[in-house]
Amino acid sequence: MQPSTLSGSGLSDLCAQRASRMAASEIRELLKILERPGLISFAGGIPDPALFDVEAFRTAYAGALARPEAAAAALQYSTSEGYLPLRRWIAAHMARSGVDCTPDNILITSGSQQAIELIGKLFIDEGDTLLTAAPTYLGALQAFAPNGPRYDTLGDNVTAAVHRARAEAAGSRVKLIYLVPDFANPSGDTLSLAERARIVDMAAELGCLIVEDGAYTALRYGGEELPPIAALDARRAGSVDAGRTLYCGTFSKTLSPALRVGWICGPRETMQRLTLAKQAADLHSATINQVAMHAVAEACYDDRVAAARHQYRIRRDAMLAALDRHAPPGMDWTRPDGGLFVWVTLPPGVDGRRLLKRAIEEANIAFVPGRAFFAEEPQDNTLRLSFSLADPARIETGMERLCDLIRSEVAALRAVPDAVPA
Ligand code: PMP
After folding, report:
1. Among 394, 356, 349, 392, which residue's Cα sits nearest to residue 372?
2. What residue owns the CA closest to ligand 1's atom 1?
Protein backbone atom coordinates (compact mmCIF):
# COMPACT_ATOMS: atom_id res chain seq x y z
CA MET A 1 0.00 0.00 0.00
CA GLN A 2 1.26 3.49 -0.88
CA PRO A 3 1.78 5.67 2.18
CA SER A 4 -0.68 8.56 1.87
CA THR A 5 0.73 12.07 1.86
CA LEU A 6 -0.88 15.03 3.54
CA SER A 7 -2.22 16.45 0.31
CA GLY A 8 -5.08 15.86 -2.12
CA SER A 9 -6.85 12.51 -1.80
CA GLY A 10 -4.28 11.27 0.73
CA LEU A 11 -5.26 14.11 3.04
CA SER A 12 -8.99 13.57 2.44
CA ASP A 13 -8.56 9.89 3.21
CA LEU A 14 -7.06 10.63 6.61
CA CYS A 15 -9.54 13.34 7.57
CA ALA A 16 -12.45 12.51 9.89
CA GLN A 17 -15.86 12.31 8.23
CA ARG A 18 -16.96 15.54 9.87
CA ALA A 19 -14.20 17.38 7.99
CA SER A 20 -16.16 16.96 4.76
CA ARG A 21 -18.78 19.25 6.29
CA MET A 22 -16.27 22.04 6.94
CA ALA A 23 -16.49 24.39 3.97
CA ALA A 24 -14.40 27.51 3.41
CA SER A 25 -16.31 30.64 4.30
CA GLU A 26 -17.07 32.76 1.27
CA ILE A 27 -16.58 35.82 3.46
CA ARG A 28 -13.16 34.81 4.76
CA GLU A 29 -12.04 34.09 1.19
CA LEU A 30 -13.35 37.47 0.16
CA LEU A 31 -11.58 39.36 2.89
CA LYS A 32 -8.33 38.45 1.18
CA ILE A 33 -9.02 40.89 -1.65
CA LEU A 34 -10.13 43.71 0.57
CA GLU A 35 -6.61 45.12 0.83
CA ARG A 36 -6.82 46.30 -2.79
CA PRO A 37 -6.07 50.03 -3.05
CA GLY A 38 -9.16 52.16 -3.45
CA LEU A 39 -11.59 49.27 -3.02
CA ILE A 40 -14.81 50.34 -1.29
CA SER A 41 -15.82 47.40 0.82
CA PHE A 42 -19.36 46.62 1.89
CA ALA A 43 -18.30 43.02 2.49
CA GLY A 44 -17.01 42.08 5.97
CA GLY A 45 -19.25 42.90 8.91
CA ILE A 46 -16.36 44.23 10.90
CA PRO A 47 -16.44 47.22 13.25
CA ASP A 48 -14.87 50.52 12.25
CA PRO A 49 -11.41 50.56 13.91
CA ALA A 50 -11.73 54.32 14.38
CA LEU A 51 -14.29 53.46 17.08
CA PHE A 52 -11.84 51.40 19.13
CA ASP A 53 -10.90 53.21 22.34
CA VAL A 54 -7.16 52.58 22.00
CA GLU A 55 -6.32 54.65 25.06
CA ALA A 56 -8.75 52.71 27.24
CA PHE A 57 -7.18 49.41 26.14
CA ARG A 58 -3.66 50.78 26.66
CA THR A 59 -4.59 51.79 30.19
CA ALA A 60 -6.35 48.48 30.84
CA TYR A 61 -3.40 46.31 29.76
CA ALA A 62 -0.93 48.56 31.60
CA GLY A 63 -3.15 48.28 34.68
CA ALA A 64 -3.37 44.50 34.40
CA LEU A 65 0.43 44.30 34.40
CA ALA A 66 1.21 47.11 36.83
CA ARG A 67 1.36 45.36 40.20
CA PRO A 68 3.35 42.11 40.45
CA GLU A 69 0.48 40.19 42.05
CA ALA A 70 -2.09 41.29 39.47
CA ALA A 71 0.37 40.69 36.64
CA ALA A 72 1.07 37.17 37.84
CA ALA A 73 -2.66 36.40 37.82
CA ALA A 74 -3.29 38.09 34.45
CA LEU A 75 -0.51 36.06 32.82
CA GLN A 76 -1.49 32.77 34.47
CA TYR A 77 -3.95 29.97 33.58
CA SER A 78 -7.38 30.70 35.02
CA THR A 79 -10.79 29.07 35.52
CA SER A 80 -12.81 27.72 32.58
CA GLU A 81 -15.89 29.68 33.66
CA GLY A 82 -14.03 32.94 33.18
CA TYR A 83 -12.75 35.92 35.15
CA LEU A 84 -15.23 36.51 37.99
CA PRO A 85 -15.30 40.34 37.92
CA LEU A 86 -16.08 40.16 34.18
CA ARG A 87 -18.83 37.58 34.77
CA ARG A 88 -20.26 39.87 37.44
CA TRP A 89 -20.20 42.81 35.01
CA ILE A 90 -21.95 40.71 32.35
CA ALA A 91 -24.59 39.43 34.79
CA ALA A 92 -25.38 43.04 35.71
CA HIS A 93 -25.43 43.96 32.00
CA MET A 94 -27.87 41.11 31.26
CA ALA A 95 -30.02 42.19 34.23
CA ARG A 96 -30.28 45.68 32.70
CA SER A 97 -32.02 44.11 29.70
CA GLY A 98 -34.38 42.11 31.90
CA VAL A 99 -32.44 38.84 32.26
CA ASP A 100 -32.13 38.46 36.02
CA CYS A 101 -29.07 36.26 36.50
CA THR A 102 -25.90 35.70 38.54
CA PRO A 103 -22.27 35.03 37.51
CA ASP A 104 -23.10 31.30 37.80
CA ASN A 105 -25.29 31.75 34.74
CA ILE A 106 -22.38 33.19 32.72
CA LEU A 107 -19.61 31.35 30.87
CA ILE A 108 -16.92 33.42 29.15
CA THR A 109 -16.13 32.20 25.63
CA SER A 110 -13.58 33.11 22.99
CA GLY A 111 -15.98 35.35 21.12
CA SER A 112 -19.63 34.43 20.68
CA GLN A 113 -18.49 32.29 17.76
CA GLN A 114 -17.10 29.81 20.27
CA ALA A 115 -20.33 30.08 22.25
CA ILE A 116 -22.27 28.88 19.21
CA GLU A 117 -19.74 26.15 18.48
CA LEU A 118 -19.81 24.79 22.05
CA ILE A 119 -23.59 24.76 22.08
CA GLY A 120 -23.57 22.80 18.80
CA LYS A 121 -21.09 20.31 20.24
CA LEU A 122 -23.15 19.78 23.39
CA PHE A 123 -26.57 19.48 21.79
CA ILE A 124 -26.49 18.42 18.15
CA ASP A 125 -26.29 14.81 17.05
CA GLU A 126 -26.18 13.90 13.39
CA GLY A 127 -29.62 14.34 11.81
CA ASP A 128 -31.05 16.52 14.61
CA THR A 129 -33.28 19.31 13.37
CA LEU A 130 -32.41 22.99 13.90
CA LEU A 131 -34.94 25.74 13.23
CA THR A 132 -33.45 28.91 11.78
CA ALA A 133 -34.34 31.93 9.72
CA ALA A 134 -33.41 31.83 6.04
CA PRO A 135 -31.04 33.55 5.43
CA THR A 136 -29.12 33.20 8.70
CA TYR A 137 -25.65 33.85 10.15
CA LEU A 138 -23.10 31.98 8.08
CA GLY A 139 -20.75 31.49 11.06
CA ALA A 140 -23.48 29.62 12.93
CA LEU A 141 -24.06 27.33 9.95
CA GLN A 142 -20.31 26.67 9.89
CA ALA A 143 -20.13 26.06 13.63
CA PHE A 144 -23.06 23.63 13.57
CA ALA A 145 -22.06 21.87 10.33
CA PRO A 146 -19.53 19.31 11.68
CA ASN A 147 -22.30 17.87 13.88
CA GLY A 148 -24.40 17.09 10.78
CA PRO A 149 -27.72 18.82 11.56
CA ARG A 150 -30.72 19.08 9.27
CA TYR A 151 -32.54 22.39 8.97
CA ASP A 152 -36.11 23.59 8.90
CA THR A 153 -36.97 27.23 8.21
CA LEU A 154 -38.95 29.34 10.66
CA GLY A 155 -41.87 31.14 9.04
CA ASP A 156 -44.84 33.24 10.06
CA ASN A 157 -47.37 30.50 9.46
CA VAL A 158 -45.35 27.46 10.42
CA THR A 159 -46.48 26.12 13.79
CA ALA A 160 -44.60 23.98 16.32
CA ALA A 161 -46.78 21.04 15.28
CA VAL A 162 -45.72 21.46 11.63
CA HIS A 163 -42.04 21.66 12.57
CA ARG A 164 -42.41 18.57 14.74
CA ALA A 165 -44.21 16.63 12.00
CA ARG A 166 -41.58 17.57 9.42
CA ALA A 167 -38.78 16.47 11.76
CA GLU A 168 -40.50 13.20 12.60
CA ALA A 169 -41.12 12.47 8.94
CA ALA A 170 -37.35 12.70 8.47
CA GLY A 171 -36.73 10.44 11.49
CA SER A 172 -35.48 13.45 13.45
CA ARG A 173 -36.45 15.71 16.36
CA VAL A 174 -36.22 19.45 16.79
CA LYS A 175 -33.28 20.16 19.11
CA LEU A 176 -32.86 23.88 18.95
CA ILE A 177 -34.01 27.17 17.48
CA TYR A 178 -31.15 29.48 16.46
CA LEU A 179 -31.99 33.16 16.01
CA VAL A 180 -30.40 36.60 15.76
CA PRO A 181 -33.45 38.60 16.97
CA ASP A 182 -31.97 42.10 16.67
CA PHE A 183 -30.79 43.50 13.31
CA ALA A 184 -29.79 40.07 12.13
CA ASN A 185 -26.73 39.16 10.18
CA PRO A 186 -27.33 39.10 7.24
CA SER A 187 -30.93 40.31 6.88
CA GLY A 188 -30.96 43.33 9.20
CA ASP A 189 -34.38 42.10 10.40
CA THR A 190 -35.61 42.44 13.98
CA LEU A 191 -38.18 40.17 15.61
CA SER A 192 -41.21 41.99 17.07
CA LEU A 193 -42.25 41.41 20.67
CA ALA A 194 -45.04 39.10 19.49
CA GLU A 195 -42.60 37.10 17.36
CA ARG A 196 -40.25 36.72 20.34
CA ALA A 197 -43.11 35.51 22.54
CA ARG A 198 -44.10 33.07 19.82
CA ILE A 199 -40.57 31.61 19.74
CA VAL A 200 -40.69 31.09 23.52
CA ASP A 201 -44.04 29.29 23.21
CA MET A 202 -42.85 27.23 20.28
CA ALA A 203 -39.70 26.09 22.08
CA ALA A 204 -41.76 25.12 25.14
CA GLU A 205 -44.16 23.14 22.95
CA LEU A 206 -41.30 21.40 21.13
CA GLY A 207 -39.27 20.86 24.30
CA CYS A 208 -36.25 22.30 22.54
CA LEU A 209 -33.56 24.85 23.27
CA ILE A 210 -33.44 28.47 22.11
CA VAL A 211 -30.06 29.86 21.06
CA GLU A 212 -30.41 33.64 21.05
CA ASP A 213 -27.51 35.36 19.30
CA GLY A 214 -27.37 38.94 20.56
CA ALA A 215 -24.26 39.99 18.63
CA TYR A 216 -25.76 43.30 17.42
CA THR A 217 -28.31 44.04 20.14
CA ALA A 218 -26.42 47.06 21.55
CA LEU A 219 -26.29 48.73 18.13
CA ARG A 220 -29.81 50.15 17.85
CA TYR A 221 -30.37 53.35 15.81
CA GLY A 222 -34.14 53.54 15.76
CA GLY A 223 -37.38 51.88 16.89
CA GLU A 224 -38.12 50.79 20.44
CA GLU A 225 -35.86 48.64 22.61
CA LEU A 226 -37.23 45.11 22.87
CA PRO A 227 -36.54 42.56 25.61
CA PRO A 228 -34.28 39.67 24.70
CA ILE A 229 -35.99 36.32 24.16
CA ALA A 230 -34.02 35.16 27.23
CA ALA A 231 -35.94 37.69 29.36
CA LEU A 232 -39.34 36.57 28.06
CA ASP A 233 -38.40 32.93 28.52
CA ALA A 234 -37.19 33.50 32.10
CA ARG A 235 -40.42 35.35 32.88
CA ARG A 236 -42.50 32.49 31.50
CA ALA A 237 -40.44 29.80 33.26
CA GLY A 238 -40.06 31.70 36.54
CA SER A 239 -36.27 32.14 36.34
CA VAL A 240 -33.28 31.89 34.01
CA ASP A 241 -32.43 28.55 35.64
CA ALA A 242 -35.86 27.17 34.79
CA GLY A 243 -35.74 28.51 31.23
CA ARG A 244 -34.56 27.01 27.95
CA THR A 245 -32.66 29.92 26.37
CA LEU A 246 -28.92 30.19 25.85
CA TYR A 247 -28.09 33.82 25.15
CA CYS A 248 -24.82 34.40 23.27
CA GLY A 249 -23.30 37.83 23.83
CA THR A 250 -20.10 39.52 22.69
CA PHE A 251 -17.95 42.63 23.08
CA SER A 252 -16.82 42.31 19.45
CA LYS A 253 -19.19 44.87 17.93
CA THR A 254 -19.07 47.35 20.80
CA LEU A 255 -15.52 47.42 22.25
CA SER A 256 -13.21 45.23 20.12
CA PRO A 257 -13.36 41.85 18.40
CA ALA A 258 -9.62 41.18 18.70
CA LEU A 259 -9.59 40.17 22.36
CA ARG A 260 -12.09 37.42 21.53
CA VAL A 261 -14.33 37.89 24.54
CA GLY A 262 -17.92 36.70 24.38
CA TRP A 263 -20.28 34.87 26.73
CA ILE A 264 -23.17 32.49 27.13
CA CYS A 265 -25.91 33.27 29.64
CA GLY A 266 -28.22 30.39 30.51
CA PRO A 267 -29.59 27.94 33.08
CA ARG A 268 -26.95 26.94 35.64
CA GLU A 269 -27.08 23.21 34.99
CA THR A 270 -26.58 23.72 31.26
CA MET A 271 -23.75 26.16 31.96
CA GLN A 272 -21.93 23.48 33.96
CA ARG A 273 -22.04 21.16 30.96
CA LEU A 274 -20.98 23.92 28.61
CA THR A 275 -18.06 24.65 30.93
CA LEU A 276 -16.83 21.09 30.41
CA ALA A 277 -17.07 21.59 26.65
CA LYS A 278 -15.16 24.87 27.00
CA GLN A 279 -12.49 23.15 29.08
CA ALA A 280 -11.98 20.51 26.41
CA ALA A 281 -11.83 23.15 23.67
CA ASP A 282 -9.25 25.59 25.11
CA LEU A 283 -9.23 25.35 28.94
CA HIS A 284 -10.29 29.01 29.26
CA SER A 285 -10.35 32.27 27.35
CA ALA A 286 -7.16 34.38 27.50
CA THR A 287 -6.87 35.61 31.09
CA ILE A 288 -5.27 38.98 30.39
CA ASN A 289 -7.82 39.76 27.68
CA GLN A 290 -10.68 39.11 30.09
CA VAL A 291 -9.03 41.34 32.69
CA ALA A 292 -8.51 44.10 30.12
CA MET A 293 -12.03 43.76 28.69
CA HIS A 294 -13.49 44.04 32.16
CA ALA A 295 -11.50 47.22 32.85
CA VAL A 296 -12.55 48.78 29.53
CA ALA A 297 -16.21 47.78 29.99
CA GLU A 298 -16.17 49.31 33.49
CA ALA A 299 -14.51 52.48 32.23
CA CYS A 300 -16.45 53.25 29.09
CA TYR A 301 -18.93 50.64 27.78
CA ASP A 302 -21.90 53.02 27.58
CA ASP A 303 -19.81 55.80 25.99
CA ARG A 304 -18.41 53.46 23.34
CA VAL A 305 -21.86 52.09 22.52
CA ALA A 306 -23.19 55.65 22.20
CA ALA A 307 -20.29 56.58 19.88
CA ALA A 308 -20.81 53.46 17.75
CA ARG A 309 -24.56 54.07 17.51
CA HIS A 310 -23.98 57.64 16.44
CA GLN A 311 -21.46 56.74 13.73
CA TYR A 312 -23.26 53.68 12.33
CA ARG A 313 -26.63 55.45 12.31
CA ILE A 314 -25.18 58.09 9.98
CA ARG A 315 -23.82 55.37 7.68
CA ARG A 316 -27.02 53.34 7.70
CA ASP A 317 -28.97 56.47 6.78
CA ALA A 318 -26.46 57.26 4.01
CA MET A 319 -26.77 53.76 2.56
CA LEU A 320 -30.58 53.72 2.63
CA ALA A 321 -30.75 57.19 1.09
CA ALA A 322 -28.26 56.23 -1.64
CA LEU A 323 -30.23 53.08 -2.44
CA ASP A 324 -33.45 55.12 -2.59
CA ARG A 325 -31.75 57.46 -5.07
CA HIS A 326 -30.01 54.96 -7.34
CA ALA A 327 -31.76 51.58 -7.22
CA PRO A 328 -33.27 50.27 -10.45
CA PRO A 329 -36.84 48.92 -10.50
CA GLY A 330 -37.20 45.36 -9.24
CA MET A 331 -34.55 45.72 -6.56
CA ASP A 332 -35.60 45.49 -2.91
CA TRP A 333 -33.76 45.93 0.39
CA THR A 334 -34.30 45.87 4.16
CA ARG A 335 -34.34 48.98 6.37
CA PRO A 336 -32.64 47.84 9.59
CA ASP A 337 -33.23 49.52 12.95
CA GLY A 338 -29.63 48.75 13.92
CA GLY A 339 -26.67 46.45 13.36
CA LEU A 340 -24.36 46.66 10.38
CA PHE A 341 -26.24 45.14 7.43
CA VAL A 342 -28.68 45.82 4.65
CA TRP A 343 -29.96 42.76 2.78
CA VAL A 344 -30.67 43.24 -0.91
CA THR A 345 -32.96 41.20 -3.15
CA LEU A 346 -31.88 41.73 -6.75
CA PRO A 347 -34.19 41.78 -9.76
CA PRO A 348 -35.08 38.19 -10.78
CA GLY A 349 -32.28 36.43 -12.62
CA VAL A 350 -29.47 38.71 -11.41
CA ASP A 351 -26.89 36.50 -9.70
CA GLY A 352 -25.08 37.87 -6.63
CA ARG A 353 -21.87 35.94 -7.31
CA ARG A 354 -21.63 37.06 -10.93
CA LEU A 355 -22.38 40.59 -9.83
CA LEU A 356 -19.57 40.46 -7.26
CA LYS A 357 -17.06 39.41 -9.87
CA ARG A 358 -18.02 42.38 -12.01
CA ALA A 359 -18.19 44.69 -8.97
CA ILE A 360 -14.60 43.91 -8.04
CA GLU A 361 -13.24 44.05 -11.57
CA GLU A 362 -15.21 46.98 -12.98
CA ALA A 363 -16.29 49.10 -10.02
CA ASN A 364 -13.72 48.43 -7.28
CA ILE A 365 -16.45 47.65 -4.77
CA ALA A 366 -17.14 44.48 -2.78
CA PHE A 367 -20.08 42.91 -0.93
CA VAL A 368 -21.08 39.37 0.02
CA PRO A 369 -23.32 37.38 -2.32
CA GLY A 370 -26.33 36.13 -0.34
CA ARG A 371 -26.11 32.49 -1.32
CA ALA A 372 -23.80 31.43 1.53
CA PHE A 373 -26.30 32.51 4.19
CA PHE A 374 -28.84 29.81 3.38
CA ALA A 375 -28.68 26.40 5.06
CA GLU A 376 -30.61 25.03 2.10
CA GLU A 377 -32.34 26.33 -1.06
CA PRO A 378 -30.04 29.33 -1.56
CA GLN A 379 -31.42 32.42 -3.25
CA ASP A 380 -28.85 33.53 -5.80
CA ASN A 381 -30.42 36.93 -6.42
CA THR A 382 -29.46 38.27 -3.00
CA LEU A 383 -26.52 40.06 -1.41
CA ARG A 384 -25.44 41.51 1.92
CA LEU A 385 -24.16 45.05 2.27
CA SER A 386 -22.32 46.21 5.37
CA PHE A 387 -22.29 49.95 6.08
CA SER A 388 -19.81 49.76 8.99
CA LEU A 389 -16.60 50.85 7.27
CA ALA A 390 -17.24 53.38 4.50
CA ASP A 391 -17.94 57.05 5.18
CA PRO A 392 -21.14 58.55 3.71
CA ALA A 393 -19.39 59.91 0.58
CA ARG A 394 -17.92 56.52 -0.25
CA ILE A 395 -21.24 54.83 0.52
CA GLU A 396 -22.90 57.17 -2.01
CA THR A 397 -20.25 56.41 -4.65
CA GLY A 398 -20.38 52.69 -3.93
CA MET A 399 -24.18 52.44 -4.09
CA GLU A 400 -24.27 54.41 -7.34
CA ARG A 401 -21.71 52.04 -8.88
CA LEU A 402 -23.51 48.97 -7.54
CA CYS A 403 -26.88 50.10 -8.87
CA ASP A 404 -25.37 50.92 -12.28
CA LEU A 405 -23.96 47.40 -12.44
CA ILE A 406 -27.29 45.87 -11.49
CA ARG A 407 -28.99 47.95 -14.19
CA SER A 408 -26.49 46.67 -16.73
CA GLU A 409 -27.01 43.05 -15.59
CA VAL A 410 -30.78 43.45 -16.01
CA ALA A 411 -30.23 44.89 -19.50
CA ALA A 412 -27.95 41.97 -20.39
CA LEU A 413 -30.59 39.50 -19.18
CA ARG A 414 -33.27 41.25 -21.26
CA ALA A 415 -31.05 40.83 -24.31
CA VAL A 416 -31.30 37.05 -23.74
CA PRO A 417 -35.03 36.71 -22.94
CA ASP A 418 -34.81 33.03 -21.91
CA ALA A 419 -32.44 33.97 -19.10
CA VAL A 420 -35.15 35.91 -17.24
CA PRO A 421 -37.27 33.56 -15.17
CA ALA A 422 -41.03 33.99 -15.49
N1 PMP B 1 -23.05 36.11 15.74
C2 PMP B 1 -23.25 36.91 14.70
C3 PMP B 1 -24.63 37.12 14.21
C4 PMP B 1 -22.15 37.53 14.07
O5 PMP B 1 -22.37 38.32 13.01
C6 PMP B 1 -20.85 37.29 14.56
C7 PMP B 1 -19.61 37.90 13.93
N8 PMP B 1 -19.70 38.32 12.68
C9 PMP B 1 -20.71 36.44 15.65
C10 PMP B 1 -21.82 35.87 16.23
C11 PMP B 1 -19.37 36.09 16.23
O12 PMP B 1 -18.70 37.19 16.72
P13 PMP B 1 -17.59 37.10 17.84
O14 PMP B 1 -17.09 35.68 17.85
O15 PMP B 1 -16.55 38.06 17.43
O16 PMP B 1 -18.27 37.43 19.13
Report:
1. 356
2. 215
Residue 35 pLDDT level (bands cut at 50, 70, 90):
confident
For the chain, how many structural domains are there in total?
Answer: 2
Domain end, chosen from 301, 323, 350, is at: 301
Long-range contacts of 320-324 (CB under 8 A, 24+ apart): 322/395, 322/396, 322/398, 322/399, 322/400, 323/399, 323/403
Distance 339 CA to ligand 1 centre (A): 12
Task: Kindly report whether the global pTM for this prediction surpasses the value 0.90.
Answer: yes
249 Cβ below 6 A of ligand 1: no
C-beta of 186 in contact with ligand 1 (< 6 A): no
**Which DSSP category does 360 fall into?**
I
269: domain range?
Answer: 54-301
139 lines ligand 1 (CB under 6 A): yes
CA–CA gap between residue 170 and residue 101 (Å, rounded): 38
Q: State whether the beta carbon of 47 lies less than 6 angstroms from ligand 1.
A: no
246 has a pLDDT exceeding 60:
yes
Q: Which residue among 132, 213, 341 is best mutated to probe the pocket of ligand 1, counting the most ligand atoms within 8 A of its Cβ?
A: 213
- d(CA 241, ligand 1 centre) in Å: 25
pLDDT at 418: 63
pLDDT at 12: 87
Say how far apart CA 108 and CA 272 lie, in whole Å.
12
- φ/ψ (deg, to 5) at 225: -60, 140
Residues 86 and 47 in one domain: no
